[in-house]
Amino acid sequence: MVRSLALWTKTLSFPTRNSPSTRQSKDKINSTILSSTPTKDKTPASTPDISDSEKDIMGSTVYCIHHKEGCKWSDQLRKLKAHLQTCKYDSIPCNNKCGAQIPRILMEDHLKYTCPERIAKCEFCGLDFPGSAMEEHNGCCPLEPIYCENKCGQKLQRRYLSRHKANDCCKRLIPCRYCNNQYVADTLQTHHTKCARVPVPCPNRCELMVVPREDMETHLKEHCNLLLSCCVFKEAGCRFKGLRGPSMDRHMEESVQQHLMLMCSLVTKQQNQITTLKNALSRISLHQSGTLVWKITDYGSKFDEARGKDGVELISSPFYTSQFGYKLQASVFLNGNGAGEGTHISVYIKILPGEYDALLRWPFAHTVSFTLFDQSEKPYNIVESFVPDPTWENFQRPSKEPDSLGFGFPRFVSHDTLKKRQFVKDDTLFIRVKVDPSKIVAV
Ligand SMILES: [Zn+2]
Ligand SMILES: [Zn+2]
Ligand SMILES: [Zn+2]
Ligand SMILES: [Zn+2]
Ligand SMILES: [Zn+2]
Ligand SMILES: [Zn+2]
Ligand SMILES: [Zn+2]
Fold first, then answer.
1. How far is CA 247 from CA 251, 261, 262, 281, in A?
2. H-assigned helices in 37-182
3. Fewer CB within 10 A of the end CB, N or C, for the chain?
4. Quick one: average pLDDT of 88-117?
5. Which helix (H) or strand (E) holds 147?
């Protein structure tokens, strides 16, 4: 008995004998056992009342050793052993002999869930597995229903999953059969409504019928043979619209006359525009400095023409004496005029009706000079000038019709003098007409 009690004290992990006092009041079993242990060291025969004290000890009231785990049992120490045979907190070897010590109360769980020697039935396929194999089977049972990894919301047995993902899953990626890009299956329909490669019917219902969406614009502009197109004489005013091909060809044949008339009126209209533009251009390019340098080219042929015919007069472009001044024009008779006819070059100036005549002072009274340039290295220019005679009618304000006579020098330079120096060079001569406003007050 003593030996077995000693065994118990060991099993029970009682506190050491050196520090009993503080626990005495708390734990009845402690004091009981501590007071009895010294008897172990003595021989049983030498102590006559040993069985009495043992009886005392065995009769003392103790708690179950699993008191702290929750066992409420409390009785005489001698009944503890028997209690432990049934105490649900006491550990016993696993029924499956897996080697683990398991409290009775946990045995059912252990046998069911954690014992490596247990036999378990898979809840999905119904097959039996030893514990360790079950752990491997968990998570790969082909009959276990699981959610599709593509998050399509479908739950189906593991064995069908790969087929589902390849063929049925609405979240699988599949290529658009028109543009070949990959799309999630349930968005493909939407994609088709805007995919550039999807064939769409030609709105003209031409023989091509369908054309990829992105090519339709080009098709309609350039290729559709059912397209109404405008006659090429549209700009000239033809309103005809027709299908390309025979219908347009027929129109071209039938409308030659009409097209010609349209073109004629277009040309006339353009001609008028050109004239207007030319006038505007010459108006803005008129000299306004009071000086005209007049370049007369092709002198030889012009002189011959003047000699062969009476009254051939060369007219300069008009020029103004200032921005808002008198409008003048020079003229030259290469074979002379009046007193210089046949022997001299004659030069004249004539007053044209100008834009600002109403504001100018009349008669015209500027000094006018003519210069014939000598084009040699050391020039000897010929200059003639005059101050207008206010009584002469040529210097009065001109009427709207510019029929006034010019004023100038019939015998400006003789043909002989002309040959002496390089007044004509490269078949060209230069005459400057200069109006000096210093003697008059214009606007
Ligand atoms: Zn117990
Ligand atoms: Zn076990
Ligand atoms: Zn299974
Ligand atoms: Zn799916
Ligand atoms: Zn596409
Ligand atoms: Zn078409
Ligand atoms: Zn036409």
1. 6, 21, 21, 46
2. 50-59, 80-86, 104-109, 131-137, 158-163
3. C
4. 89
5. strand 145-147
107 Cα to the center of ligand 2, angstroms: 8
Rounded to the nearest whole angstrom, what is the distance from the C-alpha of residue 95 to the centroid of ligand 2? Answer: 6
Same domain, 301 and 419: yes
Task: Provide the residue range defining the domain that includes 339.
Answer: 286-439
Distance CA 433, CA 293 (A): 6
CB-based neighbours (< 5 A) of ligand 7, an ion: 231, 233, 238, 240, 255
322 CA to middle of ligand 7, Å?
53
pLDDT digits (tens, 9 = 90+) for 163-188: 999 999 999 999 999 999 999 999 99
Give the distance (Å) from ligand 2 centre to CA of residue 102: 8
pTM beyond cutoff 0.85? no
Residues lining ion ligand 5 (Cβ < 5 A) are 176, 178-179, 195
CB 373 within 8 A of CB 422: no
Number of domains within the chain: 3
Overall size of the chain counted in residues: 443
Is the CB of residue 316 less than 8 Å from the CB of residue 390?
A: no
Which ligand neighbours the alpha carbon of 167 most closely?
4
Nearest ligand to the C-alpha atom of residue 220: 6
Residue 372 within a domain: yes
